[in-house]
Amino acid sequence: MNHSIAIFGAGSIGAYVGAALIAGGADVVLIARPRSCERYVREGIAISDLEGRREHIDAARIHCSADPAALADAGLILVTVKSADTAAAAQALAAHARRDALVLSLQNGIGNADTLRAALPGMTVLGGMVPFNVVQTADGRFHRGTEGQLMAEASPALATWLPAFAAAGLPLSERSDFAAVQWGKLLLNLNNAVNALSGLPLKAELSQRDYRRCLALLMEEALRALAASGIAPAQIGGVAPRRLPTMLRLPDWIYRRIASASLKIDPEARSSMWEDLQAGRRTEVDYLNGAVARLAQRAGLDAPANRRIVALVHEAEAGKGQAMAGAQLLAALRA
Ligand SMILES: NC(=O)C1=CN([C@@H]2O[C@H](COP(=O)(O)OP(=O)(O)OC[C@H]3O[C@@H](n4cnc5c(N)ncnc54)[C@H](OP(=O)(O)O)[C@@H]3O)[C@@H](O)[C@H]2O)C=CC1
Ligand SMILES: CC(C)(CO)C(=O)C(=O)O
């Protein structure tokens, strides 16, 4: 059977985007771990969002395989594995993908599209950006708990596929300043580690000033490193990057008023890094806060709070430590 779109790594983002594309009428094959595939083809996939969409894609409409050879017919391949798995995904694509397939990385971090490009010479590989959050709920739904539109590096190769994204209810916009978009998103992803260590849902965590102070510290270091490297991050969301730290440090009652749009988060939404810690998986902290520390170092600067939070998340990955209160985390980042 021919599948025009393949999703490589159907976890939270891949299953959500894949199911939405199927609901919109696209011909999709999911590449996932055997356990995930067994579940999807047994139960189907349920998706929901904070605007009230609830949809169940019946098992009969799900094509899923743990064998990457199943993507051989796809004209579009969405890569949705975590950053540490990108190199392995790239090898699988090199072995099985059509040479004329378009590859779109829907991943956080800065280097994933480059990793794919390096392994797929001659193929078109584009960076993409997912602004919204998806978590798996206790009843197995893939729930989008925040807003935002998919973005991708501008390319004529996208034109064929844009209608499928629109029909899925996930319109994709093209950006010619994609490196700036990636860094703008990475600034927001600096909260992933704070959120994971807090053990709280995003909304509860961001409602507490001490956690926001932690994030402000991490962002300031990143903004300094970006400025020293001549990179101007794009604005993702309602607030300009340079204004984020000041806004985050406001007292709770003012923050709630001024940043009401930033707090338009479903109470059950949590960062993908929290999901990783819960599942006992390695996180993407080296690709997010670690990327800031490396950028700073290349610019002759230091980013101590980002370095410290990388170490704290690694300790949490090793099962050490409990959820940290805001004041405790702030003290650890300033130590
Ligand atoms: N979740 C979110 O809200 C958001 C996530 N993102 C980004 O999207 C990307 C994906 O995140 P997310 O969906 O949360 O990640 P998940 O871990 O939920 O999903 C990735 C899935 O891919 C599977 N996988 C990895 N390698 C292979 C392989 N070779 N073959 C088959 N399956 C494989 C993983 O299995 P296993 O775990 O067993 O390795 C996992 O089930 C990340 O870069 C993340 O930062 C961006 C915005 C929001
Ligand atoms: C949407 C957001 C910023 C939520 O934390 C995210 O990218 C993630 O969880 O990885």
TrEMBL record:
GO terms for molecular function: 2-dehydropantoate 2-reductase activity; NADP binding. Residues 177-316 form the Ketopantoate reductase C-terminal domain. It catalyses: (R)-pantoate + NADP(+) = 2-dehydropantoate + NADPH + H(+). The chain crosses the membrane at residues 6-32. InterPro entries: 6-PGluconate_DH-like_C_sf, 6PGD_dom2, ApbA, Ketopantoate_reductase, KPA_reductase, KPR_N, NAD(P)-bd_dom_sf. GO terms for biological process: pantothenate biosynthetic process. The keyword Transmembrane helix applies. Pfam families: ApbA (PF02558), ApbA_C (PF08546). Keywords: Membrane, NADP, Oxidoreductase, Pantothenate biosynthesis, Transmembrane, Transmembrane helix. Residues 5-150 form the Ketopantoate reductase N-terminal domain. It is an enzyme of class 1 (oxidoreductase). GO terms for cellular component: cytoplasm. Pathway: Cofactor biosynthesis; (R)-pantothenate biosynthesis; (R)-pantoate from 3-methyl-2-oxobutanoate: step 2/2. Its EC number is 1.1.1.169. PANTHER family: 2-DEHYDROPANTOATE 2-REDUCTASE (PTHR43765:SF2), 2-DEHYDROPANTOATE 2-REDUCTASE-RELATED (PTHR43765). Catalyzes the NADPH-dependent reduction of ketopantoate into pantoic acid. NCBIfam families: apbA_panE (TIGR00745), PRK08229.1 (NF006083). Belongs to the ketopantoate reductase family. This is 2-dehydropantoate 2-reductase. It comes from Noviherbaspirillum pedocola.
